[in-house]
# Entry
Amino acid sequence: MRLILLGPPGAGKGTQAKLLVDRLKIPQVSTGDMLRAAATAGTSLGQQAKQYMDRGALVPDEVINQLVQERVQQPECARGYILDGYPRTAVQAKSLREMLLALGLGVDHVLSLEVPTEELVKRLAGRRTCKDCGAMYHVSFSPSKADGRCDACGGRTYQRDDDREDTVRRRLQVYAEQTAPLIQFYEGLGLLRRVPGTGSVDEIFQRITAALSV
# Structure
């Protein structure tokens, strides 16, 4: 089964992707992981990608597209895969479709994990990180025993800049603007499966497996 997993920051894509990997016995294909692996391996594409990554610039679509093309043709992807973090735009989605069709492949389902904005803000803005050991907490869901102190090492916990509410809301707005055309594209192809991303991890996973009939 070939899947694309969509969802805003804080929707729980990573958790659900791991559960799907275990259930379906197919790999999770993350563009971030691919970029880092290619850069470390020093391949031609990896060297191109590294030039952009080293200066903090976005890696161009044509490089990402080629990396994905190489990855999905590897033997471990023969039974399928879960694309996570790609495509991000309608332009990438169209390129992916053309590339897969040329390989005689396709996409079976596009899962869209959908969570209300205020719930996402609560999830992301409530995160706290230990300055010393990096342990993660959440003021509502998994708080430290002593307010402002890490259970593991006693270090001070803090809110990272990218977890501040105003930053979180900007990130979610950018995601919504980028993804709206992507949602419409896959909906038009009849591939989109909308799944509510609220509730327990198990409840969400049950909805996903029901949507996929697996």
Q: What stands out?
A: The CA atoms of residues 30 and 152 lie 30 Å apart. Helices lie at 13-24, 31-41, 44-54, 61-72, 90-102, 117-125, 165-188, 201-212. Strands lie at 2-6, 28-30, 81-84, 109-114, 127-130, 136-138, 157-158, 192-196. The chain is about 50% helix and 15% strand.
